[in-house]
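Quick one: structure tokens for this chain, please?
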Amino acid sequence: MDRRVVITGLGVCAPNGVGLTDFARSLQQGISGIRFQSKLKALRFACQVAGEPLIKDNVLPRYFSPLQLRGLNASGLVYGVIAGMDAWKDAGLPTASSEFPDWDSGILFGTGILGADKFREAIYEIDKGNVRRLGSTAVMQTMASGISAYLGGILGCGNQVTTNSSACSTGTEGVLMAYERIKSGQAERMLSGSCSDSGPYIWGGFDALRILPRNFNEDPGAASRPMSASASGFVPGSGAGAMILESLDSARRRKATIYAEVLGGAVNSGGQRGGGSMTAPNSESVVRCIRQALKNAGVEASAVDTINGHLTATSRDAVEIENWSKALGVSGADFPYVNSFKGIIGHCLAAAGSIECVASILQIRKGQVFGNRNCEDLHPEIRALVDPRKIPLKTILYQPKVLAKASFGFGDVNACVIFGQFND
């Protein structure tokens, strides 16, 4: 069995917008979600800016019962539930009856570290001998699969309900895992997404590694500078993105809105060899991943007209662009349009792939290529490979037909998915 797979629902909880409407507007207008964090200053972080979703208190009761809200202290779980349930609603899908699960629908929702703040709270209470004060939801908030388990119970999904974790490539990898399950006939629909916690316990390790920008604490919006000559490190972020992947037959039966088609993709690893390391990808493995993704999707390299890269605002951005050039065999004016959303949301770690996939699909849906922020001073090595007009600073009208989205994760792991404009 080899079935077509389409996207029929989207949800997002991002630093620059909670919900599709606000998120899309921020992308179109280049509105940054990166803000000064007073808590980081109080803890003497060198980098005191970050991207964190702003969620109003009156929003949470739409997604959590009063019992679940009691003792809730896991930001990533909150972000994931909002994005996941919004994607389900956006697709027009019902929740299963109280008696029977929906055997054809599953969930694959990834994360990196979930419930760090709840872990800290639990450690202090246990050390004081106050085990009973942890509450009935402590386990759900701190286990990695808590997000998929929670969504699975609320929605009543009876197909595979699981969690993946591959650092920064988690969300993009999850899309491909869900795609393969539907394509092979093992499911009709999969909710695919990923989430990442906020806060100093997540971001502290990166600050200690000295890979975050230190000179923009008074100008947060200028801190994340993908593809820029003045890039000085990635800005940490958090949030969640979610998509409903569905077989074309199921989507047609439901008369569902189709945002785009998943054409295929690939995942691999550089094995931390040949220049690859725990923190940097092996360039050969990146080129191989992109080429294999195109092959699996049945797409010629010349058909790719838009790229949403990983492009984190580090010295590796120029290397990534070079890898795209090699993989596609293009340069100069022939290079596809390319952008990075990290300039306005930061690097959302395990949530990065899913949030950026949602944004990529919105570009296809709206017939636009969203602008790049903070790369007016384009890196000279990138300028030598790409016509600067293909790296727009402002949103332009252009209909992407074949969009390649890639994520490269800690540990030298890669994922590349190919989205296409749906053509019946």
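Residues 265-420 form a domain with the Peroxisomal Thiolase; Chain A, domain 1 fold (CATH 3.40.47.10).
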